[in-house]
Hints:
Layout: E1 3-5, E2 10-12, H1 19-26, H2 29-32, H3 43-55, E3 62-68, E4 71-80, E5 83-88, H4 97-112, E6 117-122, H5 127-135, E7 139-150, E8 153-163
Antiparallel strand pairs: 1-2, 2-3, 3-4, 4-5, 6-8, 7-8
Helix pairs in contact: 1-3
Amino acid sequence: MEELHTARLRLRRARAEDLADLHAVFSDPRAMRYWSRPPHGDLEQTRTVLKAMIGASPDESEDFVIEHRGTVIGKAGCWRIPEIGFILAPDHWGRGLAAEALGAVIPRVFARFPIPAVIADVDPRNSACLDLLARLGFRETHRAARTWLVGDEWCDSVYLALPRPAAEG
Length: 169
């Protein structure tokens, strides 16, 4: 099983025993504020997501749970290539952990898949996410209104892309 390691994080494939930790993230309204679904109301919703993560084809997916000090605190990667996404438990925000995780995941995605760019779909109100992706080199390509119905609320999208790095040499 492929793992990625950074100075503070271990990124690995999801396992069944990650259910409680992932549920803590996916049931937190703060973490889910700009996600494409409302917070999980029960463990079965998280179990469904976890089963999909575990069963995702490695030919179409490059998704990792983020472990910090032995606890899963979120996930980062491409659930479906080439779209990247990430979520982190709010208690871990503001410490550079999302940037650290994406800094490991993005080069791996480009190494494994012959794609011209990694893309992202972000709620325009999520300024922290937009700032992080801009620091990583993502640039806005376009916007669209009313792209996600999350609960009873229509949300808009900002679409971004990070082009494949030019070959060195």
